[in-house]
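tool_call predict_complex ligand=NAP
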Amino acid sequence: MHNKVLIAGGRGLIGSRLTTLLQEKGYKVAYLSRSRKSEGEIKVFGWDIEKGWIEPGAVESAHYIINLAGAGVADKRWTETFKKEIIKSRTETNNILFKELKRTGYMLKAYVSASAAGYYGEDNGSRWLNESSAAGNDFLAQVCKKWEEAPDKVANLGIRLLKFRIGVVLSMEGGALPQLAKPAKLGLAAPVGSGEQYMSWIHIDDLCHMIIKGMEDSSMEGVYNGVGPEPVTNKHFMETLAGVLQKPFFAPRVPAAAIKLAMGSERAGIVLGSQRVSSERIEKSGFQFQYPVLRTALKDLLK
Ligand SMILES: NC(=O)c1ccc[n+]([C@@H]2O[C@H](COP(=O)([O-])OP(=O)(O)OC[C@H]3O[C@@H](n4cnc5c(N)ncnc54)[C@H](OP(=O)(O)O)[C@@H]3O)[C@@H](O)[C@H]2O)c1
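tool_result ok
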């Protein structure tokens, strides 16, 4: 019998790639989505975050649940309304799943929740951040703190719980890389702000394989940083990107003030903040990266 995986937010960037890799391994995937529009052969269950409603039968359809749902933090300006949505789409989704698991008494093999490396806040990059480092104080850090607290109740039901503090996911299908590659392809790659801020990146396939290992390896639980082993400064990243694209690298930096103007000063932290996040814990679990080196990861994605 196939093992079944229910992915909340499965139509998104990470969920789509994860679906393919799970299917290649013989898993049967279903989605939990705000839209019940069918997705080829994939069964789609509905839910309504505002109403706290989930389609009956959704949680019992699965051996594993992976919650990747969340309003895109880089998508639009952080108005007070949107900030509430950023939080609610992460905490309430986990709450709804918990309540349904409790109501049905259904036992899963594991429950995986996304979180983000933003948990550590905007650091200065001078130290490695590991899973026991403290949460930061800025908005995103506080979002991540609440986000991670929400599924703890699932563990109280006796279900193995994993949380991945995901870094900058590299994919050409979405996220940061296509945005960074656009100017670089025009020969306009340049560091942003001081360029000294650390980016803790991960190739999308490594992240998805990490999630699958977490599902399958019953010795794993708790929080893992979902980042590659080689965080680099923004300047190094842009220089490597330009090199892989065989384009010039511009020394003049894009001033932090311009980024703040374009994004709003709080949201600009996504680009200007520094986080040097360690992958030591996931490596100790036996996980092996396919793309540990930035140049190789970018070559694969931009080929
Ligand atoms: N990509 C990255 O670099 C990165 C880095 C760190 C953390 N993460 C986190 O990892 C998770 C998955 O990332 P991703 O890049 O795959 O995200 P994504 O492409 O934006 O997909 C997220 C999914 O969440 C659901 N969603 C969106 N707004 C929602 C809302 N208001 N309420 C409930 N559900 C909502 C959507 O599914 P439906 O439309 O089907 O409901 C969407 O497909 C996210 O929580 C993200 O914050 C991503």
